[in-house]
Amino acid sequence: MQEESSKSILFEKLSRLYSEMEEAYDRTAGNIGLSCRGCPDNCCTSYFQHHTYVEWAYLWKGLRSCPNEKQREFVHRAAEYVRQSQVLLARGAKPRIMCPLNDNGLCRLYKYRVMICRMHGVPNSFVMPDGKKRAFPGCFRCQELCSHLEEAPVLDRTDSYRGLASLEMAFVGQKMKTLPRVNLTLAEMLVQGPPEI
Ligand code: SF4
Ligand code: SF4
After folding, report:
1. pLDDT in tens, 16-75
2. Is 39 in the pocket of ligand 1 (CB under 6 A)?
């Protein structure tokens, strides 16, 4: 079990990293003129897996800050999300189900939401540890807005990934070699309970 004090320090650092991601996102979205206001889509139905213990634990810190009844409701919704997504995946379909933390269009753990919730939307790229570059064009609305631009602004996520990887290493420590790789949807993270490190 990790010391509570060192865990708190890491969570503080993660919170700062999240703020930096948001600022970088807002700058890029502002340059493009992208806003989610009035969008006919809702990205909270996107199906994503997440890969770090530190984000998983921080999400649970957020959940635990909610009243007990709300916590039970979110976990119950998450279980239903997992059940429905497994049915769809077994049929070969990609799930598009509302995130269990979205309540009437609002994220109920906004401060604790995971990295991808903060970066989705604008064109972005990152360089992987093996040197390969990956790039994403942004959401459909962003692609429409960028279609008339000669060169669309691109958010480079490499530093954010590096920052997150370094926090993950500090969070998991020596267990990095033995713990299974995280590959969970947000709903699965809620259903499984906080990670045991
Ligand atoms: S990120 Fe794009 S698709 Fe998603 S809600 Fe915002 S504008 Fe719409
Ligand atoms: S955590 Fe929040 S922002 Fe992310 S998908 Fe769920 S409701 Fe949407």
Report:
1. 999 999 999 999 999 999 999 999 999 999 999 999 999 999 999 999 999 999 999 999
2. yes
**All structural domains of the chain with their residue ranges:** 4-35+42-187
Strands 155-156 and 124-127, by their bridges, are parallel
| Structure-token match 């119950």, residue found | 76
Cα(25)–Cα(92) distance, rounded to whole angstroms?
Answer: 33
**Global model pTM greater than 0.70:** yes
Pocket test for ligand 2, best of 45, 60, 103, 117 (most atoms within 8 A of CB): 117
112 touches 61 (CB < 8 A):
yes
With CA atoms as reference, report the closest residue to 79 among 197, 196, 193, 194. Answer: 193
Give the alpha-carbon dihedral of 21, 27, 32, 33, to 10 degrees: 110
Query: What tokens appear for 196 in the block?
Result: 């045991």
Q: How far apart are CA 21 and CA 17, in angstroms?
A: 6
Shortest-distance Cα residue to atom 2 of ligand 2:
107
For residue 99, count other CB atoms closer than 10 A to its CB.
Answer: 26
Site to probe by mutation for ligand 1, drawn from 44, 141, 144 as the one with most ligand atoms within 8 Å of Cβ, is: 141
